[in-house]
Fold:
Amino acid sequence: MGTEAGDHHRLRALSARHLHGVGGAAAEVNLSARRPFAEKVWSDLAETLFPDDPFRGFGALPPAKRALGTLKYFVPVLDWAPRYGLAKFKYDLLAGVTIASLAIPQGISYARLANLPPIIGLYSSFVPPLLYAVFGSSNNLAVGTVAAASLLLASTIETEVTAEENPELYLQLFYTAAFFTGLFQTALGVFRLGLIVDFLSRSTITGFMGGTAMIIILQQLKGLLGMRHFTTKTDIISVLHSVYHYRHEWKWQSAVLGICFLLFLLSSKHLRKKLPKLFWVSAIAPFMVVVIGGVFAFLVKGDEHGIPIVGNLKKGLNPLSISQLTFQSRHMKTAVKAGLLSGILALAEGIAVGRSLAMVKNEQIDGNKEMIAFGIMNIAGSFTSCYLTTGPFSKSAVNFHAGCKTPMSNVVMSVCIMLVLLFLAPLFKYTPLVALSSIIVVAMIGLIKVKEFCHLYKVDKFDFCICMVAFLGVVFFTMVTGLSASVGLSVVRALLYVARPTTCKLGSIAGSETFRDVKQYPQAKSVPGILVLQLGSPIYFVNAGYLRERILRWVDDEEDLGKGIGHDLQYVILDLGGVTSVDNSGVGMLLEVHKSLERRGITIALTNPRLEVTEKLVQSGYIRDVLGEEWVFLTVKDAITACRYALQMSRSKGEDEV
Amino acid sequence: MGTEAGDHHRLRALSARHLHGVGGAAAEVNLSARRPFAEKVWSDLAETLFPDDPFRGFGALPPAKRALGTLKYFVPVLDWAPRYGLAKFKYDLLAGVTIASLAIPQGISYARLANLPPIIGLYSSFVPPLLYAVFGSSNNLAVGTVAAASLLLASTIETEVTAEENPELYLQLFYTAAFFTGLFQTALGVFRLGLIVDFLSRSTITGFMGGTAMIIILQQLKGLLGMRHFTTKTDIISVLHSVYHYRHEWKWQSAVLGICFLLFLLSSKHLRKKLPKLFWVSAIAPFMVVVIGGVFAFLVKGDEHGIPIVGNLKKGLNPLSISQLTFQSRHMKTAVKAGLLSGILALAEGIAVGRSLAMVKNEQIDGNKEMIAFGIMNIAGSFTSCYLTTGPFSKSAVNFHAGCKTPMSNVVMSVCIMLVLLFLAPLFKYTPLVALSSIIVVAMIGLIKVKEFCHLYKVDKFDFCICMVAFLGVVFFTMVTGLSASVGLSVVRALLYVARPTTCKLGSIAGSETFRDVKQYPQAKSVPGILVLQLGSPIYFVNAGYLRERILRWVDDEEDLGKGIGHDLQYVILDLGGVTSVDNSGVGMLLEVHKSLERRGITIALTNPRLEVTEKLVQSGYIRDVLGEEWVFLTVKDAITACRYALQMSRSKGEDEV
Structure:
């Protein structure tokens, strides 16, 4: 019986091969195609790390030009500076002055948000923009500190030491964190691991930013109410509890002034929406609030009448802080943690902002190159009394609308800040804290994107969940909790896509040439006795078990169906066109399915395996030793023709025997 | 100019639609197909959690039969017991006695490996097999303790308390860990989360098992050399250092006896390879070693002459241990950690063994059902002085070869162990420790699969890396390190597949009906002015950025190529047949690419979007409002025909204008 079955099998195979040879002409799957190992690894690496192929077209150049090109790639200023002229400078000057007027209040505000001396915020708007102008490749980005990362740094470092306990150590940890942020960002850029940022999906960022904006606004209750005591926690419950607990500290003077400022800022923002050409009004409004508030506080001696002010600001440029970096293992752990977390966050914001603005101008941004620029800027910043900087959305948008042409606008801003540091800093002493708080509140309101939440809910419920996890996690727990829970959920989703790939049964439509999912196209017809299955996605350890069970279930279903109409299932055709790769477990799965179907008397045929899959299947011996080369076809149509022919042969033989 | 371009665009679209309507006949992409939300969620959940569709065919049955079917599903003994008879029992009796003879030495050995009183090993071979016989669905699995999980439990629990410090608490933590293992396994089974086990790839398991076998063998140096002091660490360096450090404790008597036993066991194993029919010799060889060793140690008073023995074993069945479970938060954390880790490991081994043996007999194993059986068995075990049990490979293979027919062989083994516990336990007092060590060594040698390592190296270098990380991690660090590093690497690989999906340029072969990767089929021809790209895998946040850059690079390359031969690129056809799903970021990416290409004057067409993708693209407004329905085609051929037609139209119009 064994030999008879063997004969039968051989016959079918032969007939199939025969037909295949005649009908298929030159169109066969090339089973001997195999790339050398080095080439395979190299092309995989290149795809993974250099998807944008940054050195495109360099191959053809002479060595000197190639070196210059590479240098220009890493130091973009060499590329644009020679072509720079007065025509562009006019635009950049205007944009630079505009963002400088925004940088002063924002710098002071965000430094206060991080419980740092306000002057650090100004320092951080001086050195980093200069460096970005040299190494950065975005023409629209304006460099500065950001609210979310400031609060994240503060809340992480406060687990180790608070600003009240030991202000010096607290500040040192900020510098150290910035140093590690820089190292980390540079390393990511150099090793081209920009794809880490890809794991922060848009939904995660939307939810995280919204939640962060929410808790930052809550933090401003301290400034708006003129309170002196507050919690170091950030979640809504602790904050509201502390606001209520210290209610005897509330100062009506601060509150009234705060409401005035808020109304002024909000109406300037509204104006911008109505008349986009007047964007500069809303751009310099924060600066005006600071100036007006300062003059007012000076006139009425605000600090003695319930309007706390910023206090002394030292004249002079950034002092060196390289000696203040602390590498004692006890504190370093916190600094590293704070640096990495805020570094990823800062990268995500900076790169996203750069990309979306570049897209409007039809320019290209190289994420990995940007990372190196951010990294250099933060390392140098940590040596010169700056804390973490990146390309914040609000400032960059203003820069863009003000008509910036090159990173030169950052240089202009930097020069403005330098002048302020050298001559005007003491004047900002009288800035009321409530002015800073209202500036932050208004900046943050725009980040809670209710419309985007609604859009997500409509289009994709799972994305909405991911977004809400980030939002609620940040608001009710901590920023790190919200972010990591949301990223975790996204990764689980990504893995689920991989673990449960779609399979479908194909039927022919439009004259038996085209094969499509019978569920999607109910008019698609299948051939009795032959089941065509399409597998999508790579086959490997995560989904091998699932696919085995799923294929067998398709076969069971088809057999049940066939019994009704008296047709035994004899062939299963697996369309591998969508299978981009296969690993050891995947090959094992195909082998198991093959054996399992063979025992039921069902023959397997493969169609359209891709290059990588063919390599693996040949190398592991599956195609040659188990399946037989004659059962690999280029198209589903070829496979069906061969199976039909073999079916007829075996039926007519069966009738002969009868 | 804007309106002119608009006109032009409209014309092209119209002509395409016209042609599409004529040529495509009934074959169009159904853009209005949309599944209700509930149906979508339900089908996704069913695919994720019930890939094997366990209640298949129940729908048609009357309620009473359906209930009985469900009961039989969860308690398989109801299914097979009524059909059980003497014919099968003869086989099960033989198999049961054989595995009982293996269970005694293995039980004692593995309990010693975990630094537990040896009698716990015998207890653990009594209750759990009985329960498995009721709830288990594998006919081949033999239940018992396993070496790897024993060592893992010991090394985890020893971070909290060592067996010497507080033997009672140590034992209690083992019971508690078993309890949590059981809870965890049951929960996984009930919530059908068996896919967690899928993340332990074959390569990870091969490497981990090999590494574990290695360190277990190293642990046996203590027994083989008759030493009294030893390290509690498991890594090779600590162990070898401690063996050298306590070299004055080495006993030549133990070593000589050990070598004799090893030679005996190895030759019995060799015999089995040569003459498979004599498998029972190697199956009872460990038992013989225990008996011979015991008699020898009794005769020469081994314990006084450098041959340490097991020591007192209490007569009697398992005492209840339910009151010994400890839920103090301090200790519980360790117990939970140990329980979960060893639980996953035990599941992976048990299910893999069950599946691979079932496959030989062409039976089916439901992984989730097995998890529930393992879970119940471990919960009940933790109440009756047993520690973690599963279906170990060695015992199950012996069971299989001895001809077992049903889980009844586990009952037979259980009865044998019961008799031993009731009457013979004290006799095993004289078992020399060196006998147990040699039994373990021989059992472990087979788990270091050098051939499999070589095979992996040959077929897949990355799989080989994953395997080696597990192996070296276990040998040089800890078991948890090795396992988690290897799983981490596998997951990174899975995510990389997802983050860097393959894209390729298609060309037509075999008469312009079939489109294939031009890299794989160099004879494939492309149409000038039209670029056909195939995207594989789902498009979502992880790879959206990459795909955008990759598509634009393909376009750049094609434009460079076109310049050479004087053909401008005018159309990009994206074949979405391999795209199984798309999320919010993915839709955003398509939109960005669309805008970017539009600015360059290139039109996009989509072909063959699948059901889920069509839904999302329609819902988000991309197809209707941005792309236009007329640019969605069923096949690449249709799309090319339409593009060619539009190209000709625009060219002839251009000539007219000239």
Notes: Residues 1-8, 10-26 of chain A have pLDDT under 50 and may be disordered.
